[in-house]
Design goal:
The protein has 17 helices and eleven strands. It has 368 residues and is an alpha/beta fold. The chain folds into three domains: 77 residues; 182 residues, Rossmann fold (3-Layer(aba) Sandwich); 62 residues, Winged helix-like DNA-binding domain superfamily/Winged helix DNA-binding domain (Arc Repressor Mutant, subunit A), CATH 1.10.10. A nine-stranded mixed beta sheet has the order 1-2-6-5-4-3-7-8-9, sandwiched between helices. The protein has a two-stranded antiparallel ribbon with strand order 10-11. Strand 5, helix 9 and strand 6 form a beta-alpha-beta unit.
Length: 368
């Protein structure tokens, strides 16, 4: 068994989170590490505690039960690749973690991990139209500056972050399952699109691992560790997005939060991060670029160029200019535009057909 195969075997043998920390602690060189796990050795001489010594013994027993060629054949059948901690291609930012995963399993383009800047965009699964539209716009603007966006392939904000740049390939999805198990299932096509467009899906969990609640907080540490900055779009006070934010603070990463309406539960998390001054209030994508050392000036502008409005009637322009990334109900639009119901319905229908606006799941209207 060579050193790369040993790390692969360890990833299948690990049962407890503390064992990841132990493996990182024991690794000093390929030769000495191989000796620890493949020869008869007094574990106590490794200068570890009795409890850690027992963990080493357990891992050695588990490794002996594994047939490494069968595991590698399984990975090949599923189109899954892996990179071990001992390899130069292992993500540099993850190597710095005290609990660095022994192996990263992945599908897609591994070059998305090294020698490029990353920004994590995270948020609630129960996203609002405001959050979804701004997420897509911010992700797209970052992609245009060759920034790779990292998120978690979950519903809501994560999905919007990936969708905003999936065609550019500049996205990394860190999942809390095996890379062969897409959760939620409705994102199966999105996962395929990420891979086919040159993006990357990765996980520290072995293939076949299903969605377990306790896996996702640990997944969030990897999202944060891989990123040069973290942006929280929406999320409640107990959301996974705030767990990612806490990891960003722990790792010393620039943390941003998008302010939202005070009456929106989805904005409670970002607003409290801003109020407590642990996160910077995001008013421009330029602020993120500056904090990660990218001296570029771009404009976060949700408006469509004036020339594109020339194809609209005067009434359609009035309705369009009133709308924004915030959802407005039909009754509010009647009051504000002073149009009668039939005229407003006609304008909204034409704007929707022309791709200027869209109707939300709640029945309101927003700009595209």
């Amino acid at each position: 068994m060579d050193i790369k195969d040993l790390f692969l075997a360890l990833s299948f043998a690990i049962k407890f989170y503390s064992e990841k920390t132990l493996i990182k602690k024991l690794y000093s060189s390929p030769e000495s590490f191989l000796e620890i796990f493949t020869t008869v050795k007094d574990e106590l001489k490794l200068r570890i505690t009795n409890e850690q010594s027992e963990s080493v013994k357990r891992l050695k027993k588990e490794i002996k039960k594994l047939v490494i060629n069968e595991i590698k054949n399984l990975l090949e059948e599923k189109g899954i690749k892996f990179v071990a901690f001992c390899e130069e291609s292992y993500p540099i930012k993850l190597k710095e973690l005290s609990d660095a995963p022994p192996v990263i399993f992945y599908k897609g383009n591994l070059s998305n991990l090294n020698n490029v800047k990353h920004v994590a965009i995270v948020g609630t699964r129960s996203a609002t139209s405001y959050g979804i539209n701004l997420t897509k716009k911010i992700a797209s603007l970052l992609s245009e500056q060759n920034i790779v966006v990292v998120s978690g392939l979950a519903s809501g904000i994560d999905t919007s972050a990936h969708l905003g740049i999936v065609k550019s390939g500049k996205t990394v999805a860190v999942v809390g399952t095996g890379v062969d198990y897409v959760f939620p299932s409705e994102n199966k096509q999105l996962a395929k699109d990420i891979i086919s467009n040159g993006g990357l899906i990765l996980s520290e969990y072995i293939p076949g691992t299903e969605a377990m609640p306790w896996n996702f907080p640990q997944r969030n540490r990897i999202i944060s560790a891989l990123s040069d900055a973290v942006l929280v779009i929406e999320g409640g006070l107990q959301s996974g997005a705030l767990i990612t934010a806490r990891f960003a603070i722990k790792y010393g990463k620039p943390l941003f939060a998008l302010p939202g309406p005070i009456d929106s539960p989805a904005s409670n998390g970002p607003n409290i991060l801003i109020k407590s001054r642990v996160a910077e209030l995001l008013t421009s994508v330029n602020e993120i670029l500056e904090r990660i050392g990218e001296n570029k000036q771009i404009k976060l502008d949700l408006k469509i160029e004036d020339e594109k409005l020339n194809n609209l009637s005067e009434n359609e322009k009035i309705v369009y200019k009133f709308l924004s990334s915030k959802s407005y109900d039909f009754d509010i639009l009647v009051q504000e535009t002073k149009f009668n119901v039939q005229e407003l319905l006609k304008c909204l229908s034409m704007l929707e057909l022309k791709g200027f606006i869209e109707k939300t799941q709640e029945g309101g209207y927003i700009r595209n």
